[in-house]
Amino acid sequence: MPGYAADKDKVLTRLRRIEGQVRGLQRMVDEDQYCIDVLTQISAATKALQAVALALLDDHLAHCVADAVAAGGPEAGAKLAEASAAIERLVRS
Amino acid sequence: MPGYAADKDKVLTRLRRIEGQVRGLQRMVDEDQYCIDVLTQISAATKALQAVALALLDDHLAHCVADAVAAGGPEAGAKLAEASAAIERLVRS
Amino acid sequence: MPGYAADKDKVLTRLRRIEGQVRGLQRMVDEDQYCIDVLTQISAATKALQAVALALLDDHLAHCVADAVAAGGPEAGAKLAEASAAIERLVRS
Amino acid sequence: MPGYAADKDKVLTRLRRIEGQVRGLQRMVDEDQYCIDVLTQISAATKALQAVALALLDDHLAHCVADAVAAGGPEAGAKLAEASAAIERLVRS
Lengths: 93, 93, 93, 93
Fold this sequence. Notes:
Four copies of one chain form a homotetramer.
Chain A: H1 8-30, H2 35-71, H3 74-92
């Protein structure tokens, strides 16, 4: 089970809403709407994606990483390094 | 006509690809795929959205803002202030 | 004269304050202060640097880029492309 | 002892280098150097600060958070929530 198992429905709802935002962006561009209005909606979709990422990361730390750390052994260090790399990608994107 | 008129097809193609990425994310979550793999794909979708925003902003500066500046008058200052606010939203998102 | 000529003193004051924030960070680390408190102060310094960058960019668009666009010729396109590249670096950093 | 205890000298060296970068920025502005060159150096300093933050966060997860998780009890959840909030501030800054 992934770390987000308990939040799966909520995550799916948020992703479906983001899909709707991206389809809305296509409609705006198709209708030649003003650049700045399109950019404002892109910023909103980007923030929504980041919010999903932060929620998944919380779940990952609280379950997958915490379980590995509680179990101890080499897996703990591997999980921590993997989480750090994911955080770095998030901060850089 | 918006600043992105000449790039409209290319922008729509990129947004459709991003819509596909967000649907792919839903499939990953629905299939209980590993948190870190989902996060990696979210980072990719976020970067793709930012790249569209940067392309639209380039077009906006090179057309809408440049035209207003070349025409002169108070509209020029208004367009510059509006572009600065959009850049700030992008940097902060 | 650079685009920020009229704001030069204000920019210098902000940069000196950021230098103080970075020296404060060294003091915190030297005194073994708690990781999270150090991270909070790093976020504040990062935001302050970004705010200076956004202010410089505003000035650059409103003066250097606008002047080149008003003058017309190949220099206008070069200044726009250069500004776009700087915006991209800002968004990515 | 903070999570970065073993890396303290390295962190201090990086922060001193960033202080030098911020002083270099003041010199550039004082000498009226070109906006885009100043912006490039601000992006470099911002990235350097983020890199220190990511290093501190790694240490924090691998020591403070991992120790609390290994010890179990309510402190573990508190440390995880605190780390998540710090990650969110980093992603948003």
